[in-house]
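input
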Amino acid sequence: MWCPEALVEACTTALRAEAERLDAEQAVHGLDALEEAAFHPILAGGLAGVGLGVLREQPYPGVPARRARKAERERCDLVALDRPGLRLLDETVELRERDRATGTLFEQAAVAERMPADGVPPSEAVWLEVKAVGQFTYVEGFAGPNRRYASELVVGPLADVRKLAADRSIERAGVIVVLFTSDQATAEHDLHALVHRALDRDLPVGSPAIGGFDLTDRIGNARCTAALIPVRPRPE
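output
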């Protein structure tokens, strides 16, 4: 399952299908007008379309011994599992359930249920954060050059890299960047510059897997690119 190129292909296919749907409807606004959160179901659908189980807004594993409540924990945009029907094991929740059952008639049952057959530990799932950035964008309803393009392309993705790399329970992870630019050359140049910036800051990233397609130019963006930047776990 952890093949960045295959994951990017699935995401690119889903994005292209949505762009084509908007074109067929002769929509005023294109894919590049969507809010970042609107890409989550599109990408989840693309991953599900190649047979993966996909969960959205899952709490980071964190440090289970702390028993932190879900509301206290940061959430990951997408978590991919080997197939539909599996569930992500949450050791923090399971420890809290065991604590509640300790000393009751349900204590043995709580222990027995800790490793269900359909459970997947966090280390075997793929944790994916999503960032969408446009070279041209809408500001207060008006289209034009994105004056924050460079900073948005660096700050958001690198913050997600740090978050993914910091969780010791996560072994397979990446940041999906959905990038809208004037052309393919700009996208590829800027994505590789982003990765070099991460490496310069000693962040554990790999080479990006990149896919893309030409986009109907409505506001200056004529190319949509999906890139998955792998995040390696930091050494102990």
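quick obs: Helices lie at 4-24, 39-48, 91-101, 107-112, 149-166, 184-200.
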